[in-house]
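forwarding from the other thread:

> can someone predict this with adenosine monophosphate?

sure thing
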Amino acid sequence: MPEPTDPSRFRQSPDNPPMPLAEARARIVDSITPIMRTERVNLPEALHRVLAETMTSAIDVPGADNSSMDGYGFAAADVRASGDRLAIVGDSLAGHPFAGALKAGDCIRIMTGAVVPSGVDTVVMQENTREDDGHLVIETVPAAGSNIRPAGEDLTRGDVVLRAGQYLRPADIAVLASIGQAQVTVHARPRVAFFSTGDELRPIDGPIEPGQIYDSNRYGLAALLAELGMEGINMGVVGDSRAALRAAFAEAADNADAIVTSGGVSVGAADFVLDVLGEQGSVDFWRVAIKPGKPLAFGTIGSARFFGLPGNPVSTAVTFLQLVRPALVRMAGGQPAPPTRFYLPTRHALDKRPGRENFLRARMDMTKPTPDVCGVDHQGSGVMRSMSVADCFIVLPAEQGAVAAGELVCVEPFAQTLWGGGRPTDGVRSSPDRAPRGMYIACD
Ligand code: AMP
Ligand code: MG
């Protein structure tokens, strides 16, 4: 067990300013030991897992020269000009190769994916031919060698297909299937215990009284963990008491590689997460210079890494994406990649004071000749719908002040945007001046 830390030394003071985000991220990722335990899984279960072995192909893909068109195969030397005729002597279909031999002046009908027999070096697409009395008339003569995919075009025997440490995406699953890989060895999934803290939180399948709220963060966290391919251990809601937190932390540390909590990590009268983390484990740092999401605590309990995320739902989501996700990717045996970012002009002026790196929720409009980005109207850290209607963050550096309309700003699309396309605009208001309270977005 690490030495207990006195959490008071992490309390706000001029000597102890919030840590810059990049430093916090590097510090977290560098402290993670990847899980080296591996398991053999059937290929369909390997999606969103990290490959633990470098895969080479034992076969050529495709295994034989084959046609890329439905058409006719012949020897280029037999055809000189449009209108030339060839005798059709057989068929080659995918899965049913032509068994005979071609003589000079012969051709075969050949379908996409069918093996190209010896004697054929060119395929003409069906649309450029006509049949006449058992003969083929070639109307547009293709260049010699056209429409044939050579054996090994995709992969040659011995090629490295994927490397150890790669996170498996749907295309990778298809490539592994194309080399007949029914099972693969992957890193064991990190076990991530997560729970919400807060006496105001209620289950989502019952009523709520004034002052109570539904425990939405735990559902958001469960979804984020599932999307990352983690093994989530859902520990429910823990009340705002030191005793309850102690018991939950101990149970989580016994069962998990990482612990993610939401709430109770700020300076409120009922915020005990930092104190209990210091008692039961160690606090590596507290507070990051990020908005939303400043009061984040990172530390260790037993052998588990601990992430105490702030309770405001947008803060929980932003700190998870910026700090917990790269840590879990590393823990899972992968290499966290820097997020995709680019610059777009901002449609509206943006308020900002120097101090913290800001993650404004925004929408990109990439459909017009001069694309731009538009911040959603309500940037409150409690307004989760600002994340739901957004498709990207506008990332403003810590030292940045206010931004004028039309200036270039750094945009970080949500990964889901890249996978799943944009968000529908229904129910989204078009102008900040016209949007009444409670409407969220300012995009035309
Ligand atoms: P805390 O970080 O505990 O001070 O909480 C900050 C704000 O986030 C408060 O308004 C909480 O009610 C809210 N909050 C905390 N936990 C959750 C949760 N699990 N789901 C939704 N909102 C939460
Ligand atoms: Mg709370």
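The chain is about 20% helix and 25% strand. thats all i got for now
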